[in-house]
Amino acid sequence: MASSTIADIIEPRVFTPYMQENRPEKLVMMERSGILSAPDEALASRFMSGGRKIEVPYWNDLDRNEPSIINDGDTAITPEKITADDLIAYKHRMAKAWASKSITGMVATGDARSPMEQVASRVNSYWSWVKEMHIMNIATGVIADSVANHSGDMVFDVYQDVASPAASNRISSAAVNRARLTMGDAMENLRAIGMHTHVYATLLDDEKIDFVQPSDLPFQIPTYMEMTVFYSDFFPVSTGTNSDKYTCFLYGAGAFKHIDEVPSEPTIYGNMGTEITRDPNTGNGGGEDQLITRRYELLHPAGMSWTSASMADANGATFSELATAANWTRKYMRKNIPISALEVNV
Fold this sequence. Notes:
By secondary structure, this protein is of the alpha+beta class.
């Protein structure tokens, strides 16, 4: 007797490219703003090779000492040297599986396939959320390193733990400019801002959000001070005694070196990016379908190096580990790391 399975609704060789092409709005906005940029060829070529990390050598900038003054004496000029260093970028190799007993769909809708049809329709949204969480937690870790080791030179704070915050404690153009100023004369490089939904609502209430309609996109892009705005309920919130502290992140062009791959190695069930299986014995013979999806990702903040100082599993970092100061160390000058933080009330 024939039995409908997940293979009847998902063709892995079709579904995998669909996940790559059908990007959700927030990811499109991030790509359009330029904060996600492709790494150079040397780094990209090592992404799919073996190992958990990529070591990236680079030349330090020339010093900023005064030049020598030429004179008619016999003293020889003392040459300076250029130095090299390296930073470590971490590879994310991730998988997520969903399963459903056939009887579940039959009881819920009369169709054994319905739970997995719903799963399939939401897979791309799930992986988009994972990327957002990586971006937010990596930025949190970079800022935590700034606070722990560089006197908080990437943060501007107007937050006060008071029951009735003043306008000066909330997001404003003045506060945003001061957060941008942590980049020094590179402040104009910051072109996107991410914030909690409650902070975004403050700007909406004050009618400070402008909407831009690109000719090639089916949705509008919110902007503030000519910066693309991303908002989410998952941006950091710290609980205070009287009021909570909300952290906004400002991002510049190339803030993250980014590669996103859905693995395509062939398997008997489709490919490594999307695999489907069925166990006919589980559920006392009722059967169970499974959908497994995988992503390989490089998402590395410019100018920072991954230390691996605090990891439970050497094969990958959790959200909380990405947000940990000890796992990051600064390699570039502050103004060459296009990330800033603004801490506010709502």
